[in-house]
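seq/struct pair 1
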Amino acid sequence: MIAKAKSISHGINALNYITGVSANKKHPEKIYHIYDNFLPPGIDPLGIWNSVRLDSLSRPRMKNNLIRIEISPASEHTRNYTPDDWKQLWQDFVTEFDRQEMKDKTGRLLSPRTNLAGSKSTVWLHLESDSGTPHLHAVVSRLDENGNINDDRNIHLRAQRAAERIARKRGWQTAANIHDINRQSVSRDCLDVLSQMREWSLEDYFARLESKGYDVKVRTDEKGIIRGYILKKGNARFKASELGKGRNLMASKLEGTWNKLRPNQEWQTKADSRESDIRPDYTSYRPDTRRVEFEHESNSYTRFIPEKVMQVFDDEFDSREMDNWADLINEACYHFAVAMGYMAFLNTPTYVSGGGGASNNDLPKKRDDLEEEIARARRCAATARSKIGIIRKRGFRR
């Protein structure tokens, strides 16, 4: 699921668009009214706009007085949705949107919580004319009913995070997961092309990719030397630096990758198979895993950790109770990767004592059962708690 948000000043145009009043659409969509909040029934776009402008007179310095939001879930997830289901999806999104506080790395508050739930809003469902793909459009007042301003700093991040949280709770694939799955497929295509080339030729490499349906965009320097490339397929685009492993599909490394594939292809396949039998793979998306970004020694890593493990960390470090919950989860994720016997951000396994399994064997089992995995997660949470400590939010009580 994808969500976008932006504060705007052209409110009447946005209202005309989402309600279907605008006559400027080249490809008209099917449009259905879903929900109004703090608005009289049957009010038209001009009435909504005048109501918001009247409220805004108390805040003359506020230039953008509306927030425009678009929510696009995958069509297979909402195929049988009723208007009430769409309304519930919107309300769940607002809840996740409003609960966020934006802070910097030192914990200083950058943007307080919003109150979209307590603000005037109108929500409409659009179905694309050709494909029937659904998406929600909403316009929300920047002023809530108490006269407080809904802060719009980093508003696009709030929307993205709210969409990610809803997708995880409902068991949907997130936009990040879908991109990563597609990235792996593209990487496989690139490696397949390289393995089939009998002689090295960058032009042949690009030509073979184009025959697979990719649009190749090449970046050259002032001397005409190729320094990078981007692969496009449909609406998806992938930089060479994010493909493969260890950036081995970048233009500067392609010939070396081709050389390694030729003599060692069969050996590498067997080695990869043996390695996958030893430990779970946290570098690729698997069902019931969550995409997690964490840091260690000033480096950032993206890994896919079992959802049950992340639920343990979410419960142990409640964002409603703790100011430093994000740091604690970051530390716990790092220790979990180590405890499973695999430093997932290295190319080789690193085994550590006390990581699990039998007391006389540091290697993880081929298949850890769920109970052992959760128990290990709790130990990692305890390690993070003892190392960092807990900073509780003031005035919070369960």
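seq/struct pair 2
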Amino acid sequence: MLIRTVAASLALLVVLAVTGAVAGPAWEPEPVGEHLRPATTSTAIGGTTPGAGAPGDYEVRESPVTVRITDDVEVGGLLREPVGGPDGRPGVVFVHGAGTGKAADAFTLAATALASAGVTTLVPDKRLDTYSTRHRDYEAMARDYARSVEYLREVPGVDPDDVGVYAESEGAWVSPVMMVDDPRLAFQVLVSAPVVPPRQQAAYAVDNYLRNTEVPQGVFRAIPRAVGMRLPGGGFEYADFDVRPWLTQQEDPILAVYGTNDASMPLEQGARELMADAPDVTVRFYERANHGINVETPDGLVLHPDFAADVAGWVLGLPGTASAPPQVAGDQPEQLYLAAPVPQPAWYGDGDWLVGVVVVAVVLLVAGPALLGGVALARRRPGRPGARLAHGLRGPLTGLGAGAVVTTAGLVAYLAAVARLALDYEKDALVVQGGWVAVRVAGIATVVVAAVLVNRLRDTRGRLVAATGAEPREPEGASAVVVRVAFWAVVAGATALLVTLAYWGVYQLGI
């Protein structure tokens, strides 16, 4: 019996490993070949105008404002002005990254620093009635932010022909559209710009986070299968938005800045694509800075000490700063792999199908034991002999169903724990390595139980049902039918979960 169980277990494991391998794409990102080399470690902007203004030169007056987007929609905002600043000064509208984007909580340090250098800034609230995790339209968002540009152009002291955009992260998919829609806009500051489409950026970020967390190699298989599939419930069309057609139409200068501690953005690749697509692009990399160009200090996160002065100098020095050398300067970025189109899963490419399979499997695994329990209760009535599972089947059948559920729940818990560590940019070998081993051991144990069940079926020559009395023949009748249905419900539900586990890499060869 032991040899038969081992042989059957190995056969089932090979089948599941092959199934998982052919079920979807592998993850093999291309390494960065030649790194982008800054000309100097100094981030100072060339071509600045002496005496044009620097952060701290002016006191800042902050005023709440209301910007009308449509006849029925308006958003709040914060206008910051340099007290006693010169007439004809530049203005900057801030475009939010992903999230809710309230003016009171966003860009406070950057907008205040620019205003104190002599630039009028406007941080509007993000319009949220048309923005959600599932649905967002970057072209429509550009039209919404254009209303804030119109508002700022009417502010006394602002040169309406010297208004530009400061866009961070997701906002860098919006501002190039604004520039094309409104040729009167004068410049862009792009902070942590992905440049590549959102789906590619998401896969790149997940890969980077997982590498830092030091997950086993097998876990990377989940990247294309999760990021590449159509997510349950539809939507997310914006995941494949390509901003480069708008970038190729840019005519105004761009300042692109990145923090070299930002693991979520393809720093070098984004800078290269910007320089290839648009004229007059100045690139700066800030040492130890994160996604928001903040650095860690004993007092918490603060803007990189050179950042505000560099941005102010660039804005106030235009047009002289637009093409002044050096084009690329600052800290050396270290992007390891390229962001690229994400392979589409061959199986489970539709998230609705994936969820449907799991839900049906769980229903079957609940229905099977319930039916068997009902038959067992019926047998207790006097004169109702009924039917039951054949000898030796109940234990492995129970183990198969329970093992499939426990392993699936363990995988979900493991991925959630890894995601938390990755987002916090932390490491925990016990969770990351030990958790993966535990999930795989549970999965293998479930397959061993399945092998035992297969061998028991061979021993009973396929007989699933036995009579409760002394009758040796396989019983017929309603109770026998229910027992057979219950048996195959559990087997089908467990099989569906095991195939799903194989798809996510639990049964792949190696680690």
